[in-house]
Amino acid sequence: MKYVYQSDKGKVRKLNEDAVAVFPRDNALLAVVADGMGGHQAGDVASKLTIEHVEKLWSELNEPLENLNLEDWLTNSIKKVNNVVYEKAQSDGSCQGMGTTIVVAICTAQELVIGHIGDSRAYLFNQSTWKQVTNDHSLVGELVRTGQLSEEDAQVHPKRNVILKALGTELDLKPDIFQSEWNDFERLLICSDGLTNKITDEELHHIIMQTEDDKLSQTLINLANERGGEDNITLAIINQHEKVGEPPC
């Protein structure tokens, strides 16, 4: 597998409250995106704390992945990270009320296991189609799922940034889990809403499948910024058919 990842503060925000990382391990990798929220710099604290503790739990694994139930491991790990962020928010006055989205993907040669809380997303792509495999934990996401709002209207809804579920806002929060083999899909995208609020699914599909790997993340970030860049923009893309390599500088 080959991967790229990148984060940009956008054109308007003074601070980047998103965080992203990819951690290779043997013939697998773990990728994580977190979109922090909270007053002042608290969102930045929440997202960085999330990345740090996901990496810690991943690095502490002392048995082969094939011996693990990856769905259970990911569910329990996200719960542990949630409680770390929650305790920090409760104990540090400057972090009161902070939280973050999280989308984590464990990728092996055969399968994908993805956990998420919030409105950061995961997509699978091949040359002919794409599939969003996460459901937004947001007000407009719920309205779309219940038929009260169209996808098109959701893109411009005044409350599209209202999150119904965020990591670190209550104890023992349980993530949604998606598990699948790669099947015919070739690439995985995980990203914050700073990307998907500015670029349609159709455009994501075209750009991701037609752009050279070393130009891909910057191409997507540039387009989101050209269209306003009001939010931080963060993404990681994993190519299932390539050997693991370092992300571009």
TrEMBL record:
Domain PPM-type phosphatase: 2-240
SUPFAM superfamilies: PP2C-like
Xref: Gene3D superfamilies: PPM-type phosphatase domain
EC category: hydrolase
Co-factor requirement: Mn(2+)
CDD domains referenced in this protein's UniProt entry, alphabetically: PP2Cc
GO molecular function, one term: metal ion binding
Catalytic activity: O-phospho-L-threonyl-[protein] + H2O = L-threonyl-[protein] + phosphate; O-phospho-L-seryl-[protein] + H2O = L-seryl-[protein] + phosphate
Name of the protein: protein-serine/threonine phosphatase
Species assigned in the record: Gracilibacillus salitolerans
